[in-house]
Amino acid sequence: MDTNDDPDEDHLTSYDIQLSIQESIEDSKTEFYRERFIPLSDQNRKLVEAIKQGHILELQEYVKYKYALDEADEKGWFPLHEAVVQPIQQILEIVLDASYKTLWEFKTSDGETPLTLAIKAGLVENVRTLLEKGIWPNTKNDKGETPLLIGK
């Protein structure tokens, strides 16, 4: 009898429960962001612009405003989603370190996770960074695709 089966099954059961809860929370938040009535803050706009332009020094200042990291645009993209598709790995690291871990698995309005976006962008170092920081590698996008399936 293999004693490793029980811990693996417990881990998988725990993961299934976590994933179900997380998907439920994400579904409710996605609806909220699609019907946003409150405009994005100036800090969020500056933060996203610094990410897109690759301005690391400005970005380090803007991430101090934690609330700006929690705001999504009309596409459901948080600053983290913008950071994962940028080729400068340091940008992603700064945003990840400043973000709450609960945001790391949030999906865009199109159902993409930060990891699936990085894979689709072909940014191997960003994928590696996400995995090293603890992003779950099996979270599916809304099409039911896992990052591994997309990366083939």
Please tell me about this protein's structure:
InterPro entries: Ankyrin_rpt, Ankyrin_rpt-contain_sf. By secondary structure, the chain is mostly helical. It has one domain: Alpha Horseshoe (Serine Threonine Protein Phosphatase 5, Tetratricopeptide repeat). It contains nine helices and no strands. It has helices at residues 5-34, 42-53, 56-62, 66-69, 79-84, 89-98, 114-121, 124-133, 147-151. The protein is globular and about 50 Å long.
Write the H/E string, N to C: HHHHHHHHH
Number of helices: 9
Could you give me the name of the CATH homologous superfamily?
A: Ankyrin repeat-containing domain
Major beta sheet, specifics?
A: none
Report the structural category: mainly alpha
Helix content range: 55-70%
Approximate strand percentage:
under 5%
Query: Got a strand count?
Result: 0
Q: Are there runs of 5+ residues with pLDDT below 50, and where?
A: none
CATH class category: Mainly Alpha
Whole-angstrom Rg: 16 Å
Q: What overall form do the CA principal axes indicate?
A: globular
Euclidean distance between termini CA atoms: 35 Å
Query: What is the fold named in CATH at topology level?
Result: Serine Threonine Protein Phosphatase 5, Tetratricopeptide repeat
- Under the CATH scheme, the architecture is Alpha Horseshoe
Overall pLDDT confidence: 86
Number of domains: 1
